[in-house]
Amino acid sequence: MEKKSIHDILPVELIHRILLRVPAKHLARLRCVWKLWYSLISDPHFAEMHFHHSPASTYVFIENDTMAYFVDLDALFRDNNDALQVRKVSLPFKMKSPPRFEVLGSCRGFVLLHQHGRFLVVWNPLTGSSKLISYSHIASRFKPRGWSSFDFDVYGFCYDASHDDYLVFLGWQNEHGRDHFHCFSLRTNSWIDFGDALLKPLGFDNWQSCGLFLNGAFHWVPSRPKDYRDAILIFDLKERTFSTISAPEQLRTSYYSSLTLLGGCLALYYYNDDSYKTDIWVMKEYKVHSSWTLYQIPFRFQPLYLPSAMDLIGKGYDYEWELYIYNFREERLQRRFEHHCFFIDYAAADAVYTESLLPLPSDLKDKDKEENEEEEVTAHTLK
């Protein structure tokens, strides 16, 4: 009796649908099973579709400056302890001296790394694809205020769908108090000076460094807002203009504030020393001031991920570094993960991201170049 392959039983369309539901971290191995599967999984259009079918979030942080650690946040809800195991991946660009990388942010499965004072790296931990971005030409031209070496005050990392491009933004204030704002395009492999967008000094040194990208714009908040009015700074990517929106009137301006994204909504949070609670203000309708809604966590807590309407995953700070789940309905705080003997900067050394097989624009160019070269070789051989 003739043996049938899986392709004789299942049509290609059905295999395609099944693969779209397989976690991204398993697809790399599945590419080696069949030539057809390799072709399906390696297709950039499949990678795009799979990303939108894979809402699961992963938490990434760096330890000892050489290794990245990944925690499946959705696995925190499972009772199986094996699901809480941490996956380790070596950092790109091995160097003779310690690289001292820090995580600045993430976007569509890519993590933005920074080696202090030297360069940035856009890295896909799943595929291993990476892009080194040097800002040495900027550092050589500008002397920052109050620093012996160049360093930027604010930054951002986003995807520009209108141009299918990934953008990295850097902002800083020089020794004369003048603000500078530059953007790097991965598609064009070039820097853009957005100095014309700065109509007045913004005082970048006073803003929380990490820019939150939402609705086509970056958002920053001062470390300690002077007033709730115009407390959140916005840079519109399309219009290339700055503007501000107001925080809640009840905002405690004496506390250090930060921004995050919860359930697709802009959220502002800070630790309230008076009540010993973390105040989390969520703007449920974008730019609608009356939609600010207060939630409180009875703990020093950094919100990370909102997997459901009633549960919030966040990072706690005590003698050990820990991840917690807080249930709003039951007002219950549950510790679900701890990592001993590790200290992480409260401000910016970690990120929440979604694993993906997406390529960088430079990867697509290299692939097209290789295919064109193969076609030229084939055509020459046929002659």
From TrEMBL:
This is F-box domain-containing protein. It comes from Arachis hypogaea (Peanut). InterPro entries: F-box-assoc_dom_typ1, F-box-assoc_interact_dom, F-box-like_dom_sf, F-box_dom, Gal_Oxase/kelch_b-propeller, SCF_F-box_component. PANTHER family: BNACNNG10540D PROTEIN, F-BOX PROTEIN CPR30-LIKE. Pfam families: F-box, FBA_1. NCBIfam families: F_box_assoc_1. It comes from the Eukaryota. Residues 10-49 form the F-box domain. Residues 364-383 are annotated as: Disordered.
